Amino acid sequence: MIDAGVVTAQTLLLLLAAPAVAGYVRWLKARLQGRRGAGMLQPYFELRRTFAKHMVIADSASWIFHLAPFVLMAATVAAATLVPVVSAVQPADRLGDLFVLAALLMLGTVWLALGGLDPGTAFGGMGSSREMTVAALTEPTLAISVLALALATGSTSLGAIAGRVAATPAFALGPGHSLALAAFLIALLAETGRLPVDNPATHLELTMIHEAMILEYSGPYLGLILWASAVKMTLLLVLAANVFLPWGLATSLGPWAIAVGLAAIAAKLVVLGGLLALLETRLAKLRLFRVPELLAVSFTLALIAAASSFYTR
Amino acid sequence: METIAFLVVAAAFASGSVLPAVLPSARAARVAGSLSAAIGAAAAAVLGVAVLASGTPWTLAGPQALTPIGGPLLVLDTLGAVFLCVMGLTGVPAALYAIAYLRPADSHPRGRLTHTLLNGFLAGLCLVPAAGNVLTFLFGWELMAVTSYLLVVADPAADDAPAAGLWYAAMTHAGFLALLAACLILAGDGPLDFASMRGAASALSPAAAGSVFALGLFAFGSKAGLVPVHVWLPRAHPAAPSHVSALMSGAMVKLGVYGALRLFFDLLPAGPAWWGGVILAAGIVTALTGVLYSVAESHLKRLLAYSTIENVGLIFVGLGFAMLMRGYGYPDLAAIGVVVCLLHTINHAVYKTLLFLEAGAVVHATHATSLEAYGGLIRRMPQTAILCLIGALSLAALPPLNGFTSEWLTFQALVAGARHTVPELAIWLPLALAGVALVAGLAAVSAVRLFGITFLALPRTPAAETATEVPRSMLAAAALPALACLALGILPGPLVTRLAGVAGDFGLPIARLQDGLGIGLPLAGSRFVPMALALVLVGCAGIVALALRARLGAATVRVDAAWNCGRAVQSARTEYTAAAFAEPLKRVFVGFYRPTQQIKVEVHPVSPYFVQSIGYRTRVTPWMEPKLYGPILAAVRWTSLQARRLQTGSIHVYLALLPAALVFLLFVSRWIR
Fold first, then answer.
1. Taking CB atoms and an 8 Å cutoff, what residues of chain A touch B294?
2. Where in the sequence is the domain holding A173, given as residue range(s)?
3. Paired sense of beta strands B514-515 and B611-619, if any
4. Would the CB atoms of A220 and B564 count as touching at under 8 Å?
5. Binary contact (B438, A139; C-beta < 8 A)
6. What ipTM describes this predicted complex?
7. DSSP 3-state assignment of B613?
8. If I label B38, which of A290, B74, B97, B520 is the partner at 20 to 30 A Cα–Cα?
């Protein structure tokens, strides 16, 4: 019962905080670019407005188009249940591990790609094709990063990895761990559709990936997709924060430990989100066919990480 | 119990072979032939389950009259029983599907033959895993090869069928010869039943064991579709009728896996670890080759055939991993490899059967074979679309369907292997893991493309526009493997426990893998409970739908023309095609595909600056065949031309050749001793 409570509370925290994280990155990016930018809470207002709007559905769309936002949201929430946000004691370790999390995110991507193809528009198909390509090419990097973590800590379960790394800080300072973190961060950019892989702010038709795919969605469906995207980004940032740098995670369920845990994850998200905003201001978008080179770099990093993790375990 | 089931199997296949030939009406012949095949396959599955449940082998010996090769001998142990279940899982839906699917063949003179051949094919498929000696094994193997060859070339309208059949016949007989040689080396001077061969094999010299390994790998690899001996598979599978394609992909190629397991884990003593490394590497190369071609292929059934090659690669990854771990002396890890291999064999059999049956339904309804000719079928064939979606999501290895379970176990096995063993594997196994992950990602692309281009968007041709749903019995037959996909995906535990028992019979015991409702890996310390995940998924989607139900009514939803960035006209000519969908990957892996491009620009006679039309044609033709098989084919042709000189027409020369050949063979046998 307590276990279910811990999992539900962490998942809800992730779901509710996600728009704020997205808003923070956007705000900071605007400041770095010399604009004033909207407030950090802007995504909440946008979600409220989108959910209140009427919908227009393409007459060529089938039930796949209607079901896709729900599956995407459900898959993202299911992935979120596995993530240790505040507490390293993660009862959801008994449900699945990092491979399951990656597969759940893939489930959402696949359904969204089907939703993009469904109305039969050129942009939807283009977005689906590109999104699936990038997702497929990111898989090996993610898998090897997980392997590097598992070699060092002896488990592929998130809570177990976080707990083990927190207990032995020497892991986190080793080359395997830091290289795996670098590889994971590049994969994160590709998975969440950030610069230099995809521009989340663009509506220039020919350069879009994610935005092209969801072009036909409006109203509550669009709201679900926007929210799920924010959750996915936050989830991966939290993963980077808590699996690679797990300090501050609560190891018990006392009020003091939880308060420290909350403060720690907030501070880590401020830093990681800031890094993301900085990266997005400094980097130009890569041509689509240069993206595999970037992913190859991150793959090589992950491979070296796995090898060095084995020797330093 | 087992004997009764066996008698039902034998009676059903026998009556199914005879009845279609003697019954008066073509319709009765079709129904009787297909139903007999279904009953036989179901009884075979019952026999397999009974042996798996009891855990003790079942034996049936006929008169061992023909010394030294013996006579009919059936020995069904747990390994054979697993594969007999696979034959049942694939055979029952395929045979039931044939009842309505083959109706157009009633008017055809060869129609009746198809029903007889189907029964013969299934009998061969069921005989191979139950065989207890070389004679029975090779008889079943050859029965299966000959009947499936005849089924591949059965359709006189398919113009590529004869060429496909020739490739198939040549490869399968080269494999047969290799198999025969391997068995003779293995048995030595002793009797040719598996039990005696097991004893004789321990006395083999390393060189002899190595040649048995190489011959066996070629024979079983060519049956399973391992690269580079896979070339027959993408030709033969699409040429056959769809229910036969399902049997070939779901069941027949798996017998290559069965043979490899039987030879390498049961008959041969444990060999050096590099054998496993070779098989593991071949598995990765096979999986990558298969998935890359399946992403780029536009012919629906050939796409599925390439995806079969991919999955065979993944199965051999498990098998190679098991041999590698056994070679290094880690029996518990080797057992996980065997479980992965068997589990993916079953999972792939189930969803590939489903997909081939649904591909048959689509071809049946549209009379077209290319993805580019479909589109929008979800509105015209709604039930087929749902079934095909289940198959496609399994193919993409997405939770909570069955494809993901075996992929998850593969990942876990490779992680555990890299962590718990020797340094050199810590370099190679991550690469293997990356290969498997890339294959999984590309399989998802292929699945989205397969389902999205076929069923979604607007119809691209009049044939797709006027397609109608297939008969209900075809849907019901395909629903069986679809249900199995869901059941095996949500509750894999009991099956995994049984398969661990099979690994235990190889002398590779393993701690419990089943862990409550889910599966857990004691070595890697990870758990996966698909049923709980399925509940979370359904629950979340339900809660969101409830919360939004007020916003989804007719009052707030307007159905109108697609937005499409303000483009006014939407037609099938502007939507994404299968070729366009694969284009980014073709450019990323351009070194693998080596596409050829033709650009033809026609200009006005007055000035080259007035372009009148531009033609663009790009083709991906597999380059392995001319590179690898071209020299072999040239050598065969040259040899046969030289051999033609012997044919002088003079009977004296022929008579002289006979004793010369005899003397030559005597010298050879003397030299071998």
1. none
2. 2-312
3. unpaired
4. no
5. yes
6. 0.95
7. strand
8. B74
Answer whether residue B568 shows pLDDT above 80. no
Chain A environment of B396 (Cβ under 8 Å): 106, 110
Contact status, residue B119 vs residue B95, Cβ threshold 8 Å = no
pLDDT band at A2 (very low <50, low <70, confident <90, very high): confident
- A169 contacts A106 by C-beta, under 8 angstroms: no
- Give the DSSP letter of residue B616: E
Distance CA B71, CA B136 (A): 7
Q: Which residues pair with B598 in a beta bridge?
A: B617
CA distance B355 to chain A (A): 18
Asked if B411 contacts B489 with a C-beta cutoff of 8 angstroms, the reply is no
* Total domain count, chain A: 1
Using N-to-C axis directions, what is the helix angle for A122-153 and B423-455, rounded to 10°? 160
CA-closest candidate to residue B593, choices B616, B615, B619: B619
DSSP-based three-state secondary structure for A37: coil
Q: For residue B515, what is the nearest residue in chain A, using CA coordinates?
A: A94
Residues of B in contact with A228 (CB under 8 A): none
pLDDT digit string, tens, across residues B327-370: 998 988 999 999 999 999 999 999 999 999 999 999 999 999 99
Mean pLDDT of B164-180: 92
Contact status of A117 with chain B (Cβ, < 8 Å): yes
- Give residues with Cβ within 8 angstroms of B60, minimum separation 6: B3, B6, B73, B74
Tokens standing for B145? 């090869």
CA B250 – CA B350 distance, rounded (Å) = 7
Q: Are B26 and B104 in contact (CB under 8 A)?
A: no
Extract the tokens encoding B462. Answer: 């009049």
Percentages helix, strand, coil for chain B, rounded to the nearest 5? Answer: 75, 5, 20
Q: How many helices (H) and strands (E) does chain A have?
A: 12, 1
**d(C-alpha B50, C-alpha B196), whole Å:** 26
A-chain CB neighbours of B431 within 8 Å are 303
Chain A residue with minimum CA distance to B415: A147
Q: Residue ranges per domain, chain B?
A: 276-551+581-587, 628-672
